[in-house]
Amino acid sequence: MDNFSSSSSGVGGLRIIFMGTPEFAVASLDALLYAGYNIVAVVTAADKPAGRGMKLTESAVKKYAVEKGLNILQPEKLKSPDFIEALHALKADLQIVVAFRMLPEIVWNMPPLGTINLHGSLLPQYRGAAPINWAVINGEKETGVTTFKLQHAIDTGNILLQRSFTIGDDDTAGAVHDKMKMIGADLLVDTIKELSTGKLTEQPQSTVEIQPSTEIKHAPKIFTETCKIDWNKSVEEIHNLIRGLSPFPGAFGFLQDKMLKIFRSKKENNIPTHSIGEAVSDGKTFLKFACNNGYIHVTELQLEGKKKMTVEDFLRGHKF
C-alpha cells in the first residue's frame, strides 16, 4: 500500500485524530488512510519496556504511524494540560477510537463531530473489555462490530452502524479477532462516509430490540480464575472456553501437577468411563480428559516450562 501524507484535501476535508494501540487498531488506521482521510495525528500508548532486556517497545499502532510518516502523540496522562493543548491545536473535526484507553470527557467531547468508537460486538451485547473472548466462550454463533458515539458510561453511546458475521464451531478467539479487525475497518470507513454527508441517524442503545428469550451479556476483563478449566462441566462448555481463550491467555488444567495450557481441542461425546478430570492417553497419538458428558481431546498445548506444540510432538517427548 502506498504512503499517504496528512493533507486537508482528504475525503470530505475532515480533520481526524485516530486513537489506538494494538495490532487490531492498525487495520482501521490503514483503511482510513487508504480511503484518503486526513489523519492529523495518531494518539497511542507510551513506549514500554518489554522482554528480557527490558528494551523500550513501541505499540503496533505507533510502528505503523512511523512508517506512514504520521504525527504521533503519546501522552502518559490523558488529562494533562500539554496533551489537551496539543489536541486543541490540531482543530480536529472528529476523533476515532479503536482499542484504546477510556477517555475523559474533556477529550471525547472536544471535536464538533464528537468521538467514534469501534467495538467488537453487536451492542448492547457484550459491553466491556473482552467481547471477542466472551462471545466464543458463551458459544455464540454470531457476533459483529459496532460504531458508536462515546459518552459517559463505557460502551453505552448511540449506535451509528453495525455489521454481523458468523462464528464457526471451531473458531478460536484469535480467528474471530482476525475476521473482526478487517470487517470493523470497513465499517469504520462506511460510518465516516455516512456521517460526513449528514445522513447517518444515531440510535440510542435503549431502543435496540432484544428478543424476549435473550438476555444482555457482558464482557468483563479476563482473569486467571476465568481460564481454569472445570472438568465437571460439559464437553461443549469446556471446548468453548478453550477456543475462547486461544491464543491468549489460554485455558489451563493440570497434568502430573504441572500447569497445562490448552489452545485447541476436539469434542468426544461419549459417556466417560474414567473419573472426571482424569487424563487418558495412548502415549502416541492422543491425550484426552474426562468431562461430565464425554472427553476433551487436546490437539495443541503447552506444558509448564515447555513451548507450545501439537499433541503428537508433546507425546513423543513425554512419559506418563
Give structural notes.
This protein has 320 residues and is of the alpha/beta class. It has 2 domains: 197 residues, 3-Layer(aba) Sandwich (Rossmann fold); 93 residues, Methionyl-tRNA Fmet Formyltransferase, Chain A, domain 2 (Roll). It is built from 9 helices and 15 strands. Strands 5-2-1-6-7-8-9 form a 7-stranded mixed β-sheet. Helix 1 links the parallel strand 1 and strand 2. The longest helix has 25 residues. The N and C termini lie far apart (52 Å).
Shape: globular
User: What is the structural class?
Assistant: alpha/beta
Low-pLDDT parts are: 1-10
Computed over alpha carbons, the radius of gyration is: 23 Å
CATH architecture of the largest domain: 3-Layer(aba) Sandwich
Average of per-residue pLDDT values: 93
Distance between the termini: 52 Å
Number of domains as seen in the coordinates: 2
Placed side by side, the strands forming the largest sheet appear as 5-2-1-6-7-8-9
Content of β-strand: 25-35%
CATH class of the largest domain: Alpha Beta
How many separate helices? 9
Q: How do the helices and strands follow one another from N- to C-terminus? A: EHEEEHEHEHEHEEHHHEEEEEEH
